[in-house]
């Protein structure tokens, strides 16, 4: 108890301020004054580290762009990229739906940035991805879905201490690709935590071209290739009977590809051609660092040594010392920042853990879920995702509340959608790649806005 003697007042006030700072430290040390080459903006940006394990100095790096306008009234959205092991900063924020895109030495505004509609929080996870690090390099070994989910939960808990004004804000979690594992698993932990202490105001989950069920997702590739004219009838038959893609991937990661699978995949590769981008079969050019995001899902086409693009402006930008300084970032144990981790050893057998069942648990808990697909992606094709969502709706006894129909962006078809029980939705984004906000930014923003507002996708233009 502080004495009220005048001589003690200054010390008393200092002690109280120190206690407040410990409980609610100011995020000023995370504030980004200005990124190099950045145009003038009115919204605030923050970045830096949140420690999830003090003993081994396990720290996750984040980038946070507040909403362009009315930040106090806009929801909070956590964005996660997949891989496993790829960066939400370089891929999500600087290549897909963040406020800026690197161009030469400068940054240019992304007019379809998702921070037009929400406060966007990008997390480089798990440990060993991007600027996230541990002082104990053994932390990069044997990383799995459970460890990742646990660390992501600890990150959010500690992030709210730094940003207490967002604690009760409506929270949405969105991710793509292998985030089809990250997002449902983190969401489930959050709901479990809420039963002990109400902390997370989770309002919805959205998953883009997600890995939800290994066999269904991977084996839908054959039909996609065939229906888009990328493989012959004969090869399609072999790819669906002699050796399907899930079998090949399983053998590949077990380190022993059978001669029959090797033969089938060789034929598939020859016919599809190395000059077709499997993440967007309509593209003539590479997707820069974005292309490498799902190399794990596409092992035979993409390796660590492939030069996927002549120039990679995002990687160049994030490896500048002045940029790292502005971001409050540092490289620990690696010489260069990379879009996908070169040090992370992830348990790839986790690919076979079905997370569609976890999605079902979220729906049962009353959490709206949207699964969306860029319809030109052959890596996790829309056909597999649509099948899984429809099957889940049937298992949960959800009736169709919005029949399968087109939706519009401006005066063009933006894609197709179907909704079950007003809580489980499926949508395609027409003309979009695996990384939908990269290839179809305006249509992706329309879908994102509808998702946040809980409104049907536009039925008219």
UniProtKB/TrEMBL annotation:
GO molecular function: serine-type carboxypeptidase activity
Family of the protein in this entry: Belongs to the peptidase S10 family.
Organism: Flemingia macrophylla
EC number: 3.4.16.-
Protein name: Carboxypeptidase
UniProt record, GO biological process: proteolysis
InterPro entries reported for this sequence: AB_hydrolase_fold, Peptidase_S10, Ser_caboxypep_his_AS, Ser_caboxypep_ser_AS
Signal peptide: 1-25
Transmembrane segments annotated in the record for this chain: none
Function summary: Probable carboxypeptidase.
Keywords recorded for this protein, A-Z: Carboxypeptidase, Disulfide bond, Glycoprotein, Hydrolase, Protease, Secreted, Signal
């Amino acid at each position: 108890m502080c004495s009220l003697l005048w001589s003690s007042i200054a010390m008393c006030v200092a002690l109280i301020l120190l206690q407040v700072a410990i409980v609610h430290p100011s995020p000023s040390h995370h504030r980004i004054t200005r990124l190099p080459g950045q145009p003038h903006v009115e919204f605030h940006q923050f970045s830096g580290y949140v420690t999830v394990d003090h003993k081994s100095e396990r720290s996750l790096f984040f980038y946070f762009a507040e909403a362009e306008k009315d930040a106090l009234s806009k929801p909070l959205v956590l964005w996660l990229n997949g891989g496993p092991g790829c960066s939400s900063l370089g891929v999500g924020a600087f290549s897909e739906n963040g406020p800026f895109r690197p161009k030469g030495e400068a940054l240019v505004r992304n007019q379809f940035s998702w921070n037009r509609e929400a406060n966007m929080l990008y997390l480089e996870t798990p440990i060993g991805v991007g600027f996230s690090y541990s002082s104990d390099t053994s932390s990069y070994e044997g990383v799995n879905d459970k460890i990742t989910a646990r660390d992501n939960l600890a990150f959010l808990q500690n992030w709210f201490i730094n940003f207490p004004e967002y604690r009760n804000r409506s929270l949405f979690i969105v991710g793509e690709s292998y985030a089809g594992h990250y997002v449902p698993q983190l969401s489930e932990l959050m709901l479990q935590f809420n039963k002990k202490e109400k902390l997370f105001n989770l309002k919805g989950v959205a998953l883009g071209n997600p890995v939800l069920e290994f066999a269904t997702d991977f084996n839908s590739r054959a039909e996609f290739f065939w229906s888009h004219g990328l493989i012959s009838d004969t090869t399609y038959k072999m790819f669906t009977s002699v050796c399907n893609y899930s079998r090949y991937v399983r053998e590949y990661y077990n380190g022993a590809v059978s001669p029959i699978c090797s033969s089938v995949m060789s034929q598939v590769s020859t016919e599809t051609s190395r000059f077709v981008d499997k993440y967007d079969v309509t593209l003539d050019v590479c997707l820069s660092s974005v292309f490498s995001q799902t190399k794990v899902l596409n092992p035979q086409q993409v390796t660590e040594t492939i030069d996927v693009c002549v120039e990679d402006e995002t990687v160049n930008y994030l490896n500048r010392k002045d940029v790292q300084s502005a971001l409050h970032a540092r490289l620990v144990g690696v010489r260069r920042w990379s879009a996908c981790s070169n040090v992370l050893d992830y348990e790839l057998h986790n690919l076979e853990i079905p997370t569609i069942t976890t999605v079902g648990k979220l729906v049962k808990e009353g959490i709206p879920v949207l699964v969306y697909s860029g319809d030109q992606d052959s890596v996790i094709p829309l056909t597999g995702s649509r099948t899984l969502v429809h099957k889940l709706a049937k298992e949960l006894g959800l009736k169709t509340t919005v029949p399968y129909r087109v939706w519009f962006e401006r005066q063009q078809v933006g894609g197709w959608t179907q909704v079950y029980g007003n809580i489980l939705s499926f949508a395609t984004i027409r003309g979009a790649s695996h990384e939908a906000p990269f290839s179809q930014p305006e249509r992706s923003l329309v879908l994102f806005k509808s998702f946040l507002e809980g409104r049907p996708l536009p039925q008219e233009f």
